[in-house]
User: Fold Branched-chain amino acid transport system permease protein LivM from Marinobacterium lacunae.
Amino acid sequence: MQTKSILLLIGGALGLFVLGLLVPEWLSYLMIIAMGKGIVVLGVVLLMRAGLVSFGQGLYYCIGAYVAGTLTQFAGISDVLLILLASIAASVLVAALVGLLLCRYRGIFFAMFSMAFSMILYGLLVRSSVLGSTDGFNVLRPSLLGWVPSDDASSDLVLAVAVVMVMILGSLMWLYFRSLSGYAGEAVRENEIRVEYLGTSVFRIIYTKYLIAAALAGIGGTVTALVSGHVDPEMAYWTTSGEFVFIALMGGTSHVAAPMVGAGLFELLRTYAFAIAPYTWQMILGSTLLLIIIFLPSGLWSLVSRFSRQARG
Assistant:
């Protein structure tokens, strides 16, 4: 069953790559943005499965983006592999320090404290003239192992990177969700005291998941920065973190593909909602989420699970 699911994930990601090459440029751009945000939401889902809702993943999303921008703009490093490694390292390093405090809290305290750290970064970036203050700065075109693509091929390179990240991270997270460590998060959500009685550290379980979620957010921020060619402090603002929670609720938490589905629908819905109602597009998004919560409380992926059960039956 695990092998079949992983193969489906890989096949779906390859299908996205082919589709991204065939569709118009604007739609390919939305697909890459959706994959970048979907990777971030995968970390949000990881925390939600442990009973934690983070409104501060914008912190690591922004760190990953700014690392990509800083390396290409100021350090002369454009290799996408080095940028990804640096983004992961920076995100995990910050998370290792922040998590020592944050992972001791639960419920609304975890949500608000996570948002507070994200807003601290936002405030620092707004006041940093070196990093462009509120305007941010541009991210130069990435390269791969010495190959510098043309302007037209640059987006294809980022598309390929995004697809590879979705394949690798999706497969790894699928295996992790079904490991003892993955199920430990659900045990913590149900009853922390019993988990402690079994001789397992609840803090270590939460701390590990927080580090993984930070790494995923850093990767997602890097992908977004490379395809958009620009970074700004809004990436750390609380509304950005709210988007990730919004997407997680839309897609559901029962499968690693759910964040990608939710992110894709979110980007399409926001694009067309803004085109139809540029001053009230938030109402369309809010109404959509409300309908999903009422009729599909487990998210959009519950439809896939329902159809699969009916097909097997």
Observations:
- The two ends are 17 Å apart (CA to CA).
